[in-house]
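Supplementary Text 2. Reproducibility record for the structural model of the 277-residue chain.

All settings were left at their defaults, and a single model was retained for analysis rather than an ensemble. We include the record here because the model underlies the residue-level annotations in Supplementary Table 4.
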Amino acid sequence: MFSFGEIPQHAELRALFEDLYLRYNRREFVHPDPVELLYCYQETGDREVAALLAAALAYGRASQIVKKASQVLEVMGASPKGFVLSHSLKELQKVFKDFKHRFTDGKSVAGLFYGIRGVLLEYGSLEMCAECYVNEGHLKAKEAITGLFESLLRHGMPSSVLPDPRKPSACKRLYLFLKWMIRKDSIDPGGWSALKPSELIYPLDTHIFSIARALGATDRKSADFKAALDVTEFFRRINPLDPLKYDFVLTRFGIRPDLNKKEFLEICCGNRMKKGH
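Retained model, structure tokens:
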């Protein structure tokens, strides 16, 4: 069992997170996580298409997400970008007619790819599309992802395939996609330069939300967009240049038997957690 040592003060959180990062931010600890599906694509144009597909399916059990996304990517071959550019909507619907992942069926996947096709033909890449919508505001990640989402809709993507960043939801899957494409380390493959890591918004799921609330990062009662901003700001204070750096290792709690979430939170929060405050 991993030992965290002495209970740190709040100012020591970064040292604790850095220790976790050094220990667990490794490829050997990735499976099952959909980010593993992106490692085989050396061209950014292929990786961004694969990443958006993986993000669209990133709900439910991780192992099932990997399984279903793998099925789609195997059909697409070595170049997902080339695949979507070379198929019509009718052809895409035929190829994926038997696909099903929870609420996402083959028609939805075909629609997603057709929307991607239209964006690629108009802008040249998903990144160039997203970058066109980035202004000088403090929420550049939201601008980028909203512009991309609207462009995909305009080119035929069904609105149900991805969460709508214009609504109050945390849009975890879209900000997860952005994290994969912007950050670059042992886990996140990167490839985009449209944003800096410091400008990303936390891909807030229920697991990270529960940790964030325990750490006092937010007092929101639901994992909505405002909560995602709270959590982002909390981690930005710990690591201003890369607030999402510890996302992967924190998601290992509840997955790895040698990482105890309760112990971790008690150490982070000290007696406040033990007293139930």
